[in-house]
Design a protein that fits this description.
- The complex is a heterodimer of chains A (490) and B (625).
- With 490 residues, chain A is mainly alpha-helical.
- Chain A is built from 20 helices and two strands.
- In chain A, strands 1-2 form a two-stranded antiparallel sheet.
- In chain A, helix 3 runs antiparallel to helix 4, helix 12 runs antiparallel to helix 13 and helix 13 runs antiparallel to helix 14.
- The longest helix of chain A has 32 residues.
- Chain B has 625 residues and is mainly alpha-helical.
- Chain B has a two-stranded antiparallel sheet with strand order 1-2.
- In chain B, helix 19 packs parallel to helix 23.
- Classes of the chains: A mainly alpha (490), B mainly alpha (625).
- At the A-B interface, helix 6, helix 12, helix 14, helix 15 and helix 16 of A face strand 1, helix 5, helix 6 and helix 25 of B.
Amino acid sequence: MSMGWITDTLILLPMGAAVALWILPWPRVAAALIAVGVSLAEMAVWIYGLTQFDFAKAGSAPQFQDHATWFGDLGISYDVGFLGIGLWLAGLTVVVQAAAIVYAVRAGRDRPRAYFGLMLFLTGAIVGVFAAQDLLLFYVFWEAMLIPLYLLVGVWGGAGRQRATLLFFIYTMAGSLLMLASIIVLGISEGTFDLTELRTSGTSTWVFLGFVAAFAVKAPLFPFHGWLADAYREAPAEVAGVLSGVVSKAAAYGFLFIAIVIFPGPAADFRVPILALAAIGLVYGSLLAFRAPDVRGVIAYSSLAQLGLILLGVFATNLSAWNGALLQMVNHGLISATLFMLAGIVELRTGTGSLDRLGGMARGRPILATILITTGVIALAVPGSTAFAGEFLILNGVFTTGWGWAVVGAIAIVLAAMYMLRLISAVLHRRGGSAVSDEQRDLRPVELALLVPLVACLLFLSAWPAAITSHSFGQNPSNAGLANLLGRYE
Amino acid sequence: MIPAAWICLFLPLAGALAITLLGTAVSRRTSALIATTSVAAAFAASVVSFVEMLSRSTFDRAQTSVGWDWLTAGNLDFQLSIYIDQLAVYMMLIVAGVGALIVAYSIGYMDAVDEERRFFAYMCFFVFSMLLLVEGGNLLMLLAAWGLVGLSSYLLIGFEHERPAAIAAAKKAFIVNAVGDATFALALFLLVQKTGTLDYTAVFADVPDLSSTVLTLVALGLLGGAVAKSAQLPLHTWLPDAMEGPTPVSALIHAATMVVAGVYLIFRTAPIFEGAPHVQDTAAVLGALTLVVAGLVAVVQTDIKRVIAYSTMSQIGYMFLAVGIGAYATGMFHLLTHSFFKALLFLAAGILIHAFAGEQDMRRMGGLKHLMPFTYTAFLVGALALAGIPPFSGFFSKDPILANALADGTFGYVLFGLAACGVFLTGLYAFRMIFLVFGGEPSEDVRSRYHPHGGKEGPFSMRAVVFVLAVLAAIAGFLQFAPFWTPVDDFLNPVQEPLVDPTNRMEAAASFISVGLGLTGIFVAWLVYSAKRYNPPHAWGVLRHKFYFDELYDAVFCRPAIAFAKALYALVEGPIVGGSLTGIAGGTRQLGGWVRSLQTGVVRMYVLGVAAGFAVLVLVFVAVR
């Protein structure tokens, strides 16, 4: 039973809907309705896929596979399917995208056909990145993911959107082109672009570094984050949420699934420098988040820190850390999307994200306060939460690699508490800030409808983080799968 | 026993969820009743567990029950499980029992307060977290609960979220505790690496195989968590500030239950600590130092709740001393009586604060004996129990700690000396508080600010709970009178046998010395603060500044961290990370400028260039060959 239609639908349905939105003259309302409907359909298909997935083999061969030759001479094909890790990240994508699209409906974006088309196209492209089993196809989806983002930031962004888009474009383009060169060299020299066949085949340090460049910029890994603060501040709130919540995970996924799985030798050589950059990013991002003057700045730099943590887990290269990294990717995706959209909701009411001018919003707005505090304390990985579970597995795994990394992580536990509690208090507590007035209402039903599912996912995972960790790399680590690659790093 | 323990654990969580989700659909009073009922039902369930446990033979009382696989990765499997043994049941009874009393008290205390529902939801969530802490079946569950009680503490300290002081105190409590969480987590990473598991029974079975270095490091990490949570030196600075929370919170979390979690942790992981004797000694020394330092600071405090807070630190110091020398059950008995008399003191103070519209400064009180006789009596019982005067409960639980110290050799004598100083200080600060607040005649100012609640000193729920606690604080000591009858020791000893065994002479000597010192402290307090034979000495700066811990941490950690973050912004993020791209763009433009200047349009120049290039190529080929 191939069930390839599940993957195809997840990728092609939103892309097709996007094209239909762009070329047909829909009325404004219809555009929003179609976007919401398609994103809900995506969620339904994904949940159905979850019930059909064989998690015992999650780490070995792709499931729900579909295959069609594209350029036969070059060995390039449309080859899609999910490993366990891809399935979870695709789930993160469809859930966050659905919330983002509802947010956009609520915020009311100009030129809705163009806007919602881009959002749907983006959905399909990101799912494609997680599903591609052909390296060139991966690149195609990778670029298909970036182009809508340039437009979404550049056209619908805030006042400083031009500089933000330019920075984002230059950084990611530089990375992407290096990756393209690497893909071509690797594919020609190995005679195939099939990701399963390519596993462990890469030996060239330069080709490896080409991939690392693209992923390091997109994650971002310190110090390649020059685009981050501007992009996260200027993008529309829901696009910022998608950027930091989902798109950054494509980079972490690439690090794990391509940089490490294809290039075990170079990855082992570069493990310590990358771990060091990740650890620096973790502390550096936390410190900057602690001093950031605005809501989005705190979330942006905390994302830098969280990606540092995830990459610590990815490059710790053992099963504890990998499971933790995957769990943390999902956690951070949900957290970051929720926080950015909450930031947007606060900005819609007060017209500012500056922490100096906010404060006292808990008074008379119990629902906003409850959701912000719940997400915030999960974000700071309060023990018992799903983020704590992810962080625990990551640091536990990286402790085996070298105890010093875990000590840095432990320091970051304290720093995370500092910046996140500062954010919570600056928005909610004390007397009302100058931009806050009593007329600003508590969350509306539509805002609740988009935030509650995200928070509910976080609470569900807090009760049962093993939902992901025991359903990702296969039950038996010794069977032929990703897990047995880890022997090469022992 | 197991089903009842699960019910006991999840009832308060259900209460918290119900109150949160029902929101304004139910009245404030209903939400208060939901909270009280759920915690009281949890207490009933813990009693059922206890009774069922008693029916089993002494060495067949520990049971594990697995809920589900909480977190897995490869070979690691951490379950949401509960481990119910004598220690767990003992703690469940205290947590749910005292919890139910204090939540009931809050019905009256929080009556007119805004956002009352939120308060009761938090209280239920706290009781759930605390029950998870004592019932959890492995060290990961313990750490998870460790964080959740810290979270509830943060939420409740900052309950009055418009007061900057309350918010600052809440953040401080959370962040100091995060330091403890971090060392706790590091200890667990090491344990997982060495044993592959965190289940209590499995870990303890592996302890003999672990090297002493590993055990020392693990024990140090755990001690870090214990010291932060129990507000012992040097991570104690958050507890006095935590008094910004509503008084029932101070009574429940910062006196009776959460802050004693460190004592529970050391008892629970005693096999690890016994494998690292120096760390266990360190716990005893920290306890002894804390009890003296906190006692000294308590003598000069003017805020009634802060006196009681420092007193709590001091009394937990006794418990740390006890478990640090291996007198586990003795420490736990003091934990029990302390939860009664300290909750009593806080709640009685709460009646007083309630009647004086939030006034907490003892210098603005005095003569309340005449206005509030009931509260006075309750307070007196609490203070006598605290000072260890027989027949009140503190006497029966504190003196055995001193006797056990005597039985621990030379090291024990030092600890005994410090503990004895603490006894004197306890009598002094407890009765200084009594005389300042209740002694003398009430001034006109005091009378004018006194607002009785409908003719009574406080609402019925508050008085009833204080009455119950006063009775318990007065008589609970008779539960155990070492060495004559020792049911608590007999019940708890199978969990971990004590390391010290005081003789009857030591018990007697400790009792006489301790009662004598306690009475001396009371007498000195009477001379100075009641009879006013002597003027109170000018408080030394070092005491008023609480030994400068806050100033020290501010200078060593807070300011440098902020300065470092600012420096990163100014020196790295701005010019280097942000500037790099501007630099590249500028460089490219400049390069373009140079190249443009070559495009002169003069054909001669181009020909010259081509010729020169050709010549260079020829030279290169010649040279390479």
